[in-house]
Structure formats: structure tokens, C-alpha cells
Amino acid sequence: MRLRVNPPLYYNGAMNLNKQLKEVFGYKNFKANQEEIIKAIIGGRDVFAAMPTGGGKSLCYQLPAVILEGLTIVVSPLVALMKDQVDEAVENGIPAAYINSSLSAEEAQREYSRLFRGETKLLYLSPERLSLEGYFEKLKDLSPVLFAVDEAHCMSEWGHDFRPDYLVLSKIRKHFPETPIAAFTATATVTVQADIIKLLRLKKPLIVRASFNRPELFYRVEQKDDVLAQIAAFIGDHEGQAGIVYRTSRKDVEKTADYLKSRGIKAKPYHAGLPQEKRKQNQEQFNRDKIDVICATIAFGMGINKQNVRFVVHGDLPRSIEGYYQETGRAGRDGMDSECLLLYSSGDLMKIRYHIDKMENEAEKKKAAANLNLMSAFASVNVCRRKQLLEYFDEPAENNCGSCDICSGNIEKADATVDARKFLSAAVRTGERFGIVHIIDVVYGADTEKIRKFRHNEIKTWGTGSGKPKKWWRAIADDLIRQEAVIQDAESYNALKLTPAGRDILFGRKPFYIIKKKDQLPSGRGEQGFLRPADSSATSAKYDKKMFACLKDLRFEIAAARKIPPYIIFSDKTLKDMCIIKPVDNSSFLRVSGVGERKLAEYGPMFISKIREYLGY
Ligand code: ADP
Ligand code: ZN
């Protein structure tokens, strides 16, 4: 047992934390809620904190780990990430370590020795260790002063990432009745929150629910027609930037990665069908900026800590807003502007409906259908996308966020009543017995075998829409579905049937608007190739881009030599700040956000000399 002497284990919370914040992490100010959480923790209180990805959760337990006298234990289900997390903490000068199944017996033994000598202040543990017989007893000898539970929603069956092995955490309180527990999650639902508090047996915890708004993310939805070409075009606008492309099926993941590669984009696939070694390798290459794009199923993401993901594309419709929010949330962790693109088609909607219809559990089926409807509304309704996301989490929001396609004036509302009536009329005149493709053929005036067979070229609406491309009619059809003017009847081969809203449009009682992308983007495309309001974020301050590229190269070289991900050395945001401040000596280097004492000592000389060279000193 180590002797515990002054200073006391827990503090009265009145201390000034800004000094440590700058010295260790290099930041001048706390992010929202961090200070309150840290003060509660070092005051010995339990905490439950729901904060979005990028909200700065790790600092909330790392700073207490530095301040508190004794060992902080972080439990995380993300074993694959632990090494990077520990490297990151060590880079900031925090004596950190991890113990999980990836260590050999000898390596683990070495870590235990260091722990028992009191040399480690921050220990990352996997739940699988805690499940080992007698492990809690072993931990008692280390007298931990704080347990931090990362990704706490994994304990809850109501969450989207439930892991039964995480339930072992509910034993912490029993074994350590006096040690504070701080639980963190990026899941916003209140049900999950209550579940976590109960399972961990938190005592009068400080409960923090941060805003789930991610102002740095720009949301955009586009009609999906030629999905691969659309994805490639979008990525072309983001050359050299890191991004994730989500596809639903493994096959489409492979196809997308191949397509992008054939167009000279550095992309790799990631899905559960790949051998584990390959998957790990691809993820690591992405993490270390060796490739730009990872094409993945939703299996990818929980285990990613990469800070500089600049875009997330959904090539297929996600099943729920919660999932969509978490996946898009992987962009812009470093707080810099990033873009989220969703490609929407009614075909996807139909496919998911089909799967839902086959579900056996009625309650689950209902929930899935409700989730899907909200998701589809997100893509179609003429309401700020951000507002819809936040309202899903019961968070009030402004009507106009200024930074989604709806609010930025990047799309327009067009009156399409006449065309909608043509389409609906064709559906009715053919007896509401046919699916989208055929109805489009009728309106367009196609001469197919099916048309001739049913003599649909003789009905009045045949060919009335020949003046517009099929793509246009597809968009009309998709929007009629999204706005629930027609439904696709799964019981009769997805035949289109009019709803009362559809009849209102057909009989001229209601207008029909579609939202469509403006053909010509107004001037002022942002530096990342998409439209943003001029002052959308502080990070768009002017900086020297050539210098940025030069420092990025230096960062890449150092990272490769040390075999760590580049962002661990400095985030993009820190590099950008460097290109604004242009520090040429230690004191100005220390002014850069993200540069603390340890990073100044470790990297200051190399970066300062590069900057001096660049500036021609
Ligand atoms: P989360 O785990 O909540 O997703 P992280 O802990 O990864 O978020 O933090 C996101 C980013 O914000 C990291 O780059 C981190 O260094 C940075 N960060 C954390 N706290 C601050 C702060 N007070 N000021 C500036 N940046 C911060
Ligand atoms: Zn908006």
C-alpha cells in the first residue's frame, strides 16, 4: 500500500484550474461544461456527462488524473483505441498506461510493476479485465481515486451499442463504495442516461447534458441518382481531406472503394467481412493520414479517435436519426468546419421498409418504423436539418441555423404542382397497381413492352412529361413519397397508392413543392468547396495555407518515424493556429492553442525551425 499524505485526495473545487489546463493540454479556456465536471470530480463527487463527440470528454477525466493524488482508472470498451489514447496522454506528459488483451503477459506484468510503484497516474482498462476472477481485489491494492467510464451507454440495453460484457462495471460501486465514478457518453437520450445512473449506482451525481449541436458540421441532403459518381464528385471537391463514406452493404463498400481508387482517390474498404488483420491495417492507414477515405459499413466508427475527419458521406439512407447523428458526428472532432452529405432515394426507403416488415417482434417493428419515418422526414421536409436533429434529442433550436443546405440558400423550394399532378394522375389512371419505374415510363411516354401490354400508351397522361428528363420524374416521385402523398404498397409489389394528401394535390386542393439544389451555386463557395456563410466559425480565420501544408508534412514525417497517428502530435486546428500566429520562438509557440509545456519541449524546436525556414529567417 502506498502511503497517502498531503495533499488531500479530493479538493474543495475552488482551485484555479486554468494553469494546469494550459501547462498540460496547451489550452487557454475550457470547453462548455468541462470546468464544472472537473471541479465536481476533484471534489469527490460522482458525475454523469452526456456530451457530443468532440465535446472534450477525455480532458474531463485526464485533468483530474493529473491533479488527484493517486490512480485514475478509465474503463473503455474500445480496446483498439487504447494505445492511441495512451500515446496521446503521454504526449501531453501524463504518466498513462493501458492493460488489455493486446499486451503479452510480460508487457502486462511490466505495467503492473509500474502501477504498484505508483508511477502511473492514468490507467486504461478493458471490461474484459474487470471480468477476470479476483480482478477487483487486485485493483483494491492500487487504491484508485477515480473511475472514469467511457462510452457508458454501452451498458444500457436501450442504447445502440449495448455490450453485455460492459455490465461488469455495475460492480465497481460494490467494491469501491467511496471512490467517485464519472460516466461519459455521447448518447443523448434520457432513457439511456437513467439506465446508466442506475446501473453504476451513482450517488447524487452531477448530471451534465451538453448541447448536442455541432456548429462545425454542415448538413446537406441530395437526391441519389448515380451514387458512385456523386460520391466521387463530392470527394473531388475535398481533395486531400480525410473522410468517411458509409454504405449499407459490404458489397457496396467494396464497390465504392474500388470506384474511388480507379479515380485516383486514396480509399480503402472497412467492413466485418474483411479479415481482421486487413481491417485493422486499413483503419490504421486512415488514422495515420496514409489514405484519405475509408469506405465503411456502420461497423466502422466507434473505434475511431481521428480528429481531422473533414467529411462524412452517407451513400445510403440510415435507419435512424440517432445512428445518423453518431456517424456524422465523427467529422469535425477537432472543431474545424466539416461537411456531411446524405444521398437519398425512395428505393432505399423501400428496402429498409421491406426489412422492417419482416421483423417479428411487434414493439421493435414499430420502433424501427417510427425511426425510419423521422429519418426520411429529415431528408425531405423543408425544415432546417440541424433543428430536426436537435429536436430529436429534445433540444430546442433556432429555425435558421445558417449552416445546412436548407438554411444557407443552397437549395430552393420549387412549385412542382403541375408535374406532381401529372404523375399522380398516371398512377390513378393505371389503377394504382404499378410501381415507380413504370409510372415514370408512362409520364415520360416510354415505349416499353409493359406499356404496350397494358395499353398504357392510350391513357391521357402518357407522354405528357416527355419534355423533362426521367431523372426529374424520379425526383418528383421520391418527393411525393417522402411527403407521403403516395405510399409504396409492399403487399402489392410496391405499387404506388395515393394517400388523402396525394388526392388533395391531384384535385388541385393543395400545392406541391419540392426542394431542389440550385443549379448554379451562388458565388462564395467556401474553402472546402461548399457553401458556407462567411463567418460560420472562428476557425475560418485567414491562415497561410502554404505554411499549413508545409507543417503538415513535418507532422507526417515525425508521426511516421515515431509510429503514432499525426493528430496526436498536433491537431489540424493547432497547426492552423500556428499558421496564424507564426511563432518563431518558445514564448510565441506556447501561445498556440494545443501547445502545452511538454509539447513545447518535444516538438517546439522542430516546428519553430521549420517556420523560421519557411519565413526566410
Ligand atoms: P470527445 O471524447 O468528447 O469526442 P475529445 O476528448 O476527443 O472529445 O476532444 C475533442 C477535441 O477537442 C480534441 O482535439 C481535444 O484536444 C480538444 N479539446 C478538449 N478540450 C479542449 C479545450 N478546453 N480547448 C480546446 N480544445 C479542447
Ligand atoms: Zn439549418
What can you tell me about this protein's structure?
With 617 residues, the chain is α/β, with parallel strands linked by helices. It folds into 4 domains: 9-209, P-loop containing nucleotide triphosphate hydrolases (Rossmann fold, 3-Layer(aba) Sandwich), CATH 3.40.50.300; 217-410, P-loop containing nucleotide triphosphate hydrolases (Rossmann fold, 3-Layer(aba) Sandwich); 414-517, Orthogonal Bundle (Arc Repressor Mutant, subunit A); 538-615, DNA polymerase, domain 1. It has a 7-stranded parallel beta sheet, sandwiched between helices. Strands 8-13-12-9-11-10 form a 6-stranded parallel beta sheet, sandwiched between helices. A two-stranded antiparallel ribbon has the order 14-17. Strand 15 (486-489) and strand 16 (495-498) form a beta hairpin. The structure holds adenosine-5'-diphosphate (ADP) and zinc ion. The site of zinc ion has 7 residues, from helix 16.
Task: From the structure above, extract its key features.
4 domains, 42% helix, binds adenosine-5'-diphosphate, Rossmann fold, disordered N terminus, 7-stranded parallel β-sheet, 6-stranded parallel β-sheet, Arc Repressor Mutant, subunit A, alpha/beta, single chain, binds zinc ion
